[in-house]
Design brief:
Elements lengths: L2 E2 L2 E2 L7 H14 L3 E10 L2 E10 L8 E6 L7 H8 L1 H10 L3 E5 L4 H6 L18 E4 L5 E2 L10 E4 L9 H10 L7 E7 L12 E4 L8 H7 L10 E2 L20 E2 L5 E2 L6 H8 L3 E7 L5 H24 L1
Parallel strand pairs: 5-6, 5-10, 10-15, 11-14
Antiparallel strand pairs: 1-2, 3-4, 4-6, 7-8, 7-9, 11-15, 12-13
Length: 314
Amino acid sequence: MKKNKGKVSLYYSHDIDEYIKALKEKTKKLKKIKFSSYKLKYKNGQFSFLRLASADIKPKDKILFIAAGIHGEETAGPLTILNKLKEIFSYARKNKVKLIIYPLCNPSGFSQMTRYNIDGDEGENGNNDYLRYEMADGTFKDDIKKSNNYKAWYWSSEITKKLPLETKTMHKILKKEPLTQVRALLDLHQDYISSVSLPFSYHYSFGKLGVYKDIIKNIKKIVPLYKNRMIDAGFCEVGKDGDRSNCLEEAMLSDKNGFVIRHDGTLPDLFYRLGTPYCITVETTGATPLQEAMAVNMVWIKGLVDLIKYESTK
């Protein structure tokens, strides 16, 4: 990771050792942050799964949970956490919201700039695999789109053992977290799959989307919304020649504010089923400059803190 006048550069060399070193240094300078590390032992290397959290989380505290870097090549999330760490924790403290952050959910993918881990293990349904739906006929699905017609839901680790190592590890750690206190879940991503040559932002969510109107207003000041568009990124196999014709049935239409409602078994879908009121997946297109992608992430982080604070005053 390149440095400039002692500061970590936004335009990094995806050097994971320097990323972790810089994150540790920044964490030490800030008060009341707990830094934890868990070993991930792959066939092709060993990496560290990181957890940051407010050190003084009490039973009645409300929590914003942030995950970043599930897909290794999507670096804007991890870099937002690294470069804006002080601002994030300061804003949360000011508004009496506690934080749990997994800043680098796929460290080996980050280190080599690949979507999946260093062993190339995609599991059954990729590495953002947290939920299975049992259907009326007894079969299991991870993606039921907008539907709410299902018999029961389960953590995917209760149904299958075919999960990538970083995903298995997250399941284990998550089950020890104070999940009932989490009021918002933010999963930071970038879309390098869709063939879009311009900067845009869109978002996956559930429930009453009108509560995000102020957030959407601020995002539009940074990048346009990818609204009223068919989106299939991550949900279909693209032909070697780039043919996407078989993706049409998997695509879903974003609304006028760039929202897509899709129950797809990912981390936000799990938290939604657990009862978390605000569950968001942030997406900025690959053509979005890093600074702008990070700015969109910060709008969501601060906006969700504001929503949690407002909820506390009602």
